[in-house]
Amino acid sequence: MGGEKRPRRRHLSADEKALWDYVTQSVKRSSADGTPLPHDQDDPDDAGEPAPTPKKTRVRQRLIEPPLLPPVPNPVPLSHGTTVGMDRRTAQRLRRGKLDVEATLDLHGHTQAAAHRTLERFLHDGYMAGTRTVLVITGKGDRLGGRPGILRDTVPRWFNEMPMRQWVAGFSYAAPKDGGDGALYVRLKRRKPSR
Hints:
The protein is α+β, with helices and mostly antiparallel strands. The protein is built from 4 helices and 6 strands. Helices cover 25% and strands 13% of the residues.
């Protein structure tokens, strides 16, 4: 035992000392049951002794700013054919309609609100089930008036908004056999295993 050295105590740096002083300013004494004590009351165990005169200490005004976290990168916006989350070969096969469509959602006749809810649930369920490629039919719009359909324009925008953005790796117009520009092939991200 005589040969054992005690570990040297490390002294706090000026920044660490300032941080410690700042943190301890917000600490309040409490009684044994956890309720805070009034400022004029001492600890119940010291009831018979007079309160010691507090020493006047100079409080440093310098506050330590918390470290800045690195900015969260904005995901690359998805558009027709933009396939950030896929390799080149898979992206080509998606655009050509060569990937097996595992599920289809037809949004004809839905209002925007109903379509949004239905699409969100469909993509979430597909992602959770491990589905990779789905077909979403939006319709082409007013053929006689020449106006594009509301859902045809809106659905791709929804893919870039949360929570859908976290499930979608990319999308592209469907091949003519599957609805052409009135439908979308959507490639879902691979589900990360839960820990």
